[in-house]
Structure formats: structure tokens, C-alpha cells
Amino acid sequence: MKTLKGIETYGCFHLGHDEAFARRLYASLVAGEEVSVDSVITIDMVKREGGVPFPQGLRHCSYEQLAVNIRLITKELFKHLNLEN
User: Fold this and answer.
1) Source organism's superkingdom (predicted)?
2) pLDDT for the residue numbered 50
3) What is the pLDDT at residue 37?
4) What distance in Å separates the CA atoms of residue 22 and residue 35, rounded to the nearest whole number?
5) Are 66 and 42 in contact (CB under 8 A)?
6) For residues 15 and 22, is the Cβ–Cβ distance under 8 A?
7) Into how many domains does the chain fold?
8) Rounded to an integer, what distance in angstroms lies between the CA atom of residue 65 and that of residue 84?
């Protein structure tokens, strides 16, 4: 989230070690690649190797889109961990 002091991270989802799953899920998010008038939140895709973060993508969304995305991430991660393994 952009604040007066800069970018502030306030939430994070660990999607596991299946990179293909993480990329498919990230691609399905309701968000834009360009900043719009409604863009208030960014969703970053970060890959960690040896504890070092490597940015993989950046998407912009509104508060309403964020709510949709959190539901989508939670649902798809639950299915992936419980039904598809």
C-alpha cells in the first residue's frame, strides 16, 4: 500500500513451492498492469531463493478487487493444498 512514508507491506500469502500453480493463480487475479484512478493497492508476486526476494510481477487493484482477489487466493490455495495434491 502506498503511504505518505512510502510503500508499506501489510499482508502476504505463501503459495508454496509449486511455481506453476503460483503463476497461474497470480495471472487469474482481478487487477490491472497499469495504474488507474481506482488503483490503491498493489499485489506483488515475489519469488524467494535462499531467503532473498526477487520481484516477479506487480498488479494494481481497487479495494473491491482486493476483496475478490483475497477470496480467490484463499479458495484456490485451499483446493490446491487439499484436493489436488
Assistant:
1) Bacteria
2) 92
3) 78
4) 23
5) no
6) yes
7) 1
8) 26
Query: What is the reported pLDDT for 7?
Result: 79
- In which domain, by residue range, is 36 found? 2-82
Q: How far apart are CA 6 and CA 61, in angstroms?
A: 17
**82 class by beta-carbon count within 10 Å (0-12 exposed, 13-18 middle, 19+ buried):** exposed
Closest C-alpha among 40, 52, 43 to residue 22 = 43
Contacts of 42 (CB under 8 A, 6+ apart): 1, 2, 7, 58, 59, 60, 61
For 68, counting Cβ atoms within 10 Å of its Cβ (0-12 exposed, 13-18 middle, 19+ buried), the class is middle
C-alpha–C-alpha distance, residues 9 and 38, integer Å: 19
pTM for the predicted model, two decimal places: 0.84
